[in-house]
C-alpha cells in the first residue's frame, strides 16, 4: 500500500506484544470513554478506529475564537479560509477539494449541521458559542455506518455542556486587533428534577486586509447567537432534553462582478458590496428511557432552518439580457463563448456552426451594433438587482436502542427518517425535496478478555438515488482494557447534494435601468442545468492502529496506518459558465497519523499531533489541498498563584502550494474574590511563514495579531 517504512516497523512492533503483556501496562480500571465512534460508550482502546478528543480544558487553553481553529489540533484535519461569495472556511480531513466541506459529517449534540441542499457546513454560522462546548470528539475515518451518507472521511461531534454543570453566571468580553469584538453571557439554574442554561453571545472581526493585488477585502463578519438547553427528569428512568438555538448576522462580500463585454458604467451605478445576511434556527427534543441497567432507548426529533439572503446591484452590457444570446448559450455554451470572444476582439462575424446557431449569432451581432457607442467602443449597459437567496429546512427523527445481551455482547440498533427541503430561485429554480430512511446497527462481542470483534452496517434509502448498504468490520486485541491494537475495514459513501444533482442555475435580474430591449426584468444569458445522473462517492478504508492510556504516567496516545481508496468522486468546481460535475475522479491516500496527550504531573500538559500522507489524485483540485506533512504541538502550564499559559504550534508543509506555520501564545491570570472568579487573558498569534493563508488572495497587513479577554464567573 505504499506505507512509509518507519510506520510499518512501528506497526509490527506493536503487534509483537505477547498476550501476557498486561504486566507492562498496569493501569487504573477507570478509563475515559468516547461515544462518537459507534454510538456506544467505549474505552478508547476498544474503538473501531481513530478518535481525537478536545476536552474543555484544551478548548479553553487554545484561545480559539472559532470552531475551525479548534480543529487544527486534530491530526490530518486541514483548515482553509476562503474568500468567496460568501467568504467561508472549509475544514477537510486528509485534504481533497477545498470548494466545500462535502465529505465531513458535523454534529451538535447529535444534530447534523451539514446542509444537504448546497453541500456546506457554515462553520462560522453554526449557532453555538465556544464557551458552551464541553468537548469535541472527532472520529478520524469513514463512519457512514453510524451516521449515514456524508460521513465519508470523518465525523466531528460537538457536545455541549450539560445544564446541571452550568449553574451560575458567566460573562466574557474579548477585544483585539483586526476588529475582534466578541462577547458572551450565560446563566444556569436548577430545580428539583430539572436544570436550565441560557446563553447569549456575539462575534465580530474584519477578516483579511487585502488580496495579492493590494485591493481591500470586504470579508468581515458580525453575528449574534442564542442557545437554550433544558433537561427534565420525568421519573428515575425517564428524562427529556430540550434545545433551542438561533443565530443572526451578516457576512461582508465585495461586489467583484465584471461585465462579460466592455461597458462604460457610471460610478455609483454598481454596488460596491453584496453582503450576505444569515439566519439559522434549530430546535430539538430528546427522550431518554432506561428500561433496565442493560437496556436503554432514546428518541430524538430535530428541526432546523437556514437562510442566506443576498441581493445587490450590478451592471452588464444590455446584450447580456438578449433572449437570442440566452438561447444560443443553452444550445451550446462553447459556441456562445466563441461568439463573445469574437465580439470582444472586434470581429463582427458569427463563428462556424449549425444553421440555427449562425442565425441566432447574427441577431446578437445586430443587437451589439444597435447598442454600440462608436466613439468609445463600449456597449450600452443596464444595471439591475441580482438575487442569490437560499433557504433550507430539515426535519430529522431518530430512534435508537442499546441492549446488553450478556456480559460479553452488546447490540445497538436504530432507525431514522430525514426530510430536507431547499429553495433558491437562482440556484435551484423550483424547490427541491429529499427524503432519507435509515436502518443502522452495531454489534460488539468480547470473544475473551483480549479479543474484541465488532461489526456494523447502515442501510440507507434516498428518494433521489438507489438504496445503499455500508459495512464496517473491526478486530481489537486488548493488551489490557487501556491498551489495544486494532485492524479495521470500512466502507462509506457521500450522496450528491441537491445542487450538484439538481441545479437549475440562472439569474433573473430585476429593476433593470435602463430597460434592456424593453425589459425591466430579464434573464441573464448564462445559465446551466445539472445532469441529474450523478452517483454516490464511495470509499474503502483499511486501518491498523494502537491506542493506549498510561494512567500512572498521565499519557494517552494513538497511532494509525491507513490506506483509503475514494472512487466516483465529484471534484469539479461548479460554476455557472462551467458546470460539468461527474463521477470520473478518484483519490488514493496512504499514510501514518499519531496523537499524544501527556499530563506531566498536575501543572504541565503536552499535546502532539502529526499526519504524513502520500496521495494520488486524478483531479488537480484534490491534489492542491493535501499536504504530505502537517501537525500541531501544545504545552499547557499552571505556574501557580492563578497564572496559566499555553503555547501551540500549527504547521503544514504545503497547503494549496503554500507553507503554513503559526505560534499561538496565551497568558492568563485567574483571581478568586469570595465566590467570584475573574480571568484576564492575552492571546498572541504569530505567523512563522511569509505566505498568504492557504489561498493566494488571503493577506494580512501584519504577521501577528493580539487580543485580550476578561471573564467573570459567579
Automatic annotation (TrEMBL):
Of the GO CC terms on this record, one is: cell outer membrane
Start and end of every TonB-dependent receptor plug domain?
46-154
List GO BP terms, alphabetically.
siderophore transmembrane transport
* Ranges for domain TonB-dependent receptor-like beta-barrel: 395-653
Q: Where is the signal peptide?
A: 1-21
Q: Which UniProt keywords apply?
A: Cell outer membrane, Membrane, Signal, TonB box, Transmembrane, Transmembrane beta strand, Transport
Q: Where in the cell is it found?
A: Cell outer membrane
Is Cell membrane included in the keywords of this UniProt record? no
For this chain, one GO molecular function annotation is: siderophore uptake transmembrane transporter activity
From the UniProt record, list the coiled-coil ranges. Answer: none
**SUPFAM superfamilies attached to this UniProt entry:** Porins
Where it mainly occurs, coarsely classed, is: membrane
Its topology with respect to the membrane?
Answer: Multi-pass membrane protein
Instruction: Return the similarity comment.
Output: Belongs to the TonB-dependent receptor family.
Q: Which protein are we looking at?
A: Iron complex outermembrane recepter protein
Q: Which species does this protein come from?
A: Geopseudomonas guangdongensis
